[in-house]
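Reminder to self: keep the SMILES exactly as supplied, no canonicalising. Ligand is coenzyme A.
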Amino acid sequence: MVVPASVADHPGIYHLLTAVFQGPSRGEFRASLEDPHYQPHDRLLVKRGPQIIAHALVTRRVMEFGPIELPVAGLDWLGTLPTLRGQGHGRRLLVAAEEHMASTGALAGLVWTRIPHFFRRTGWALCGRHFHSRGGARDVISGLIARGLLRRSHRRLNIRPWRRLELGALVRIYKQNLDAAFGPFQRTEAYWKWLIHRGGYDQICVALDGPDLLELEEVHAPIVGYSVTRGERIVELLSAPGCPTAAAQLMARACRDAIERGRHTVSLDAPPNSRVDKLFRAASGKRHHHQMDPSLVLMVKLLSPVKLLRALAGELHRRAEEAQLARPLELGLLVDGKKYRLAIHRDRVEAVGRNIGRSYLRLNVADFTRLVLGHFDWDEALADGRVEPSTNLALEAGRVLFPPLPLWLPPLDNLPARE
Ligand SMILES: CC(C)(COP(=O)(O)OP(=O)(O)OC[C@H]1O[C@@H](n2cnc3c(N)ncnc32)[C@H](O)[C@@H]1OP(=O)(O)O)[C@@H](O)C(=O)NCCC(=O)NCCS
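Structure tokens returned for the bound complex:
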């Protein structure tokens, strides 16, 4: 039987995780307990007598999805003691975790995993891998110079390590970059504090537009960008809108720091083809993205498709408006036998279940998940016969309402503490 954990179970859980995963580190386990959204019953356990034999952790997050905030839940540290595998404990925990996720109000579950087939059976869909760009540290600096981005005539920013009292600047710049982002988690001040305290990074640097006067408030020397690095990896690099030179200068600083530590290669985590990613690749002369870890994939489970479609209704309406889609119109979705219908009016979109109407798309649950999250390759799915539109209208409406989106989950949120 699956039971929720209590505080008293924490030492036993740490013991189990060490046996199953040879980790987490003590620091990372402590950090998981200090997560501002954490509640002990977000851990689910299978026990035999007093012994914990299997465990799963559900984390509560809010995902920024364009203009919408979606409550989501992560699944971490799902594991069964090696000697007791193959008896259904893992499956039972997964089902219980999905129910718990839904009970927290989450509309989608997320897991980074190396065993996608284990999750596929309960309707999880592969929704991405983690890509990064890599280049020579010296090449990046020369590339930035060659592009005139580090010229003295450019407004010189002051770049230095971040100080704890400047938390507000990180909160602000991160928020300023969320407008067109699909996938990053909402970071409140408490969440930022937790991320920083967790220490999954080596250094945070900030770019100041003005003199670095310690005693002055940020107002007098506004912070216009920051970078988070771990070893030779630039984990996050964001700049304030209207200050494009900050990204180049922070990038150059990260490369110089890497060279100083004897590293020749640097990597950048950023949404593929974002401004920062393009800048890095142009400077380094590298055209391709690399998979960070080819065996690690992101899987998503839609926990309540109708509620999710309702949450997206405003955005779906905006897309219909922008494409001047003739309305009123209806689009059904027939997903492995389950039925959903979108009624697209002139002034709004409504989503209902249990009915598809005449114009619909037939597809499986994995493709439906990718469709809703903007990770669906229309041309490939049509060529493979994985999506079957009942009418031309269904195809046209489907393409307009569910375009490809740059789904990207920043890795900083998942970077474990080092010790
Ligand atoms: C994944 C895991 C939790 C499954 O636990 P379990 O108690 O054995 O799960 P169940 O008995 O319910 O299911 C086992 C099924 O998963 C499959 N499975 C489990 N681990 C697998 C793996 N690494 N590769 C392929 N299949 C795997 C088994 O083949 C079995 O399939 P079957 O039902 O067709 O026989 C367990 O193998 C484990 O702890 N693995 C190490 C940690 C891990 O990788 N966790 C996943 C993190 S995202």
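Points to follow up:
The chain is about 35% helix and 30% strand.
The first helix runs from residue 10 to 21.
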